[in-house]
Fold this protein.
Amino acid sequence: MTREPKTEAQFMGRITASVAHEMRNVLAIIKESAGLIQDLLEISTDTSPKTKEKFGRTLSKVQQQVERGVHLATRLNQFAHSSDEPVTGVDLNDTADQVAFLAQRLAKLKGISLLAVPAEQPVIITSDPLKIQMLLYLCIASLLEVVGPGLTIGIGPRTAGDSRVAIGFHLTGIDETTKAECSGPDGAENWAALKEFAAGLGAELEVKALPALFEVVFASGSRHG
């Protein structure tokens, strides 16, 4: 039996998940139709080879974009389900991967790449999945204010000892020139607000020396949010 949404976030998540599911159905029909057209072209005796080649290239692009659309809809569906439970077990490997994907376009506009760097083992805390993703997304947005183009920001969790876990943000492709262009995450305009948001989830932001940037540190296994 499906439970009714109790919060605005759960309502938005429920609707978004439903729409994402329908999007995948639409894309599946487009994919099947493009495949059928491709099959008909291959067996057609009335179409010139040049025309077949042109249609083939176009259909190939359609198929590629459909696959891309399916991937986007799948990710959107996963994100929508983040609001299902306000407090639950959160695998920070999966979360870092999801947020790196969701923020790709934001980073691309700044000429920066995002890369999820998972830990070898699951790193799990009990918290609010949606708020954790929001925190990491805001962290990335802050970093984009102070990091120059052409670099890659790696995002990955680790166990930090003393019953703590952390998600770290670090740079790759950095040299002395680009290092000088990085003012550090605490130079972002919203850094103080970000620290306050993190504190609301029982986390601290610890600034590190480059090429590391900073870490979001949680008490492992405890309830946050």
Notes: The chain has two domains: 8-83, 88-219.
